[in-house]
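pasting for the record
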Amino acid sequence: MFKQNDIANLKNIIWAIDKIENSLKSIESIEELVQNEEKFDSIIIKLMNIGESADKLSQELKNKFSDVDWKGMYKMRNIITHSYHSLDESIVWDITRNELPQDKIQIISILSEIEK
């Protein structure tokens, strides 16, 4: 069975995605996001948090739910950590608008399955 830490880490990923979605409610464009340094930095921190939590998931969970891009989440964390000042804002925008909503749906489904 999955570790209790897996549930906590999945819930942390959902929490971070919710925070990112909330931060983006009033943002209409990538330019607006980049101009709002406080929101941009907050989103970056949450993306790092998502990557850390994904990395801490058990291999058993990652193997069972291999359709989720767990490695991509952690890779994004590494890119942000090691290349923050040269980070391509369009990649951040794309992840927040296109990838995270799908990740959230998948992780909510995983949680409902493993918390039974």
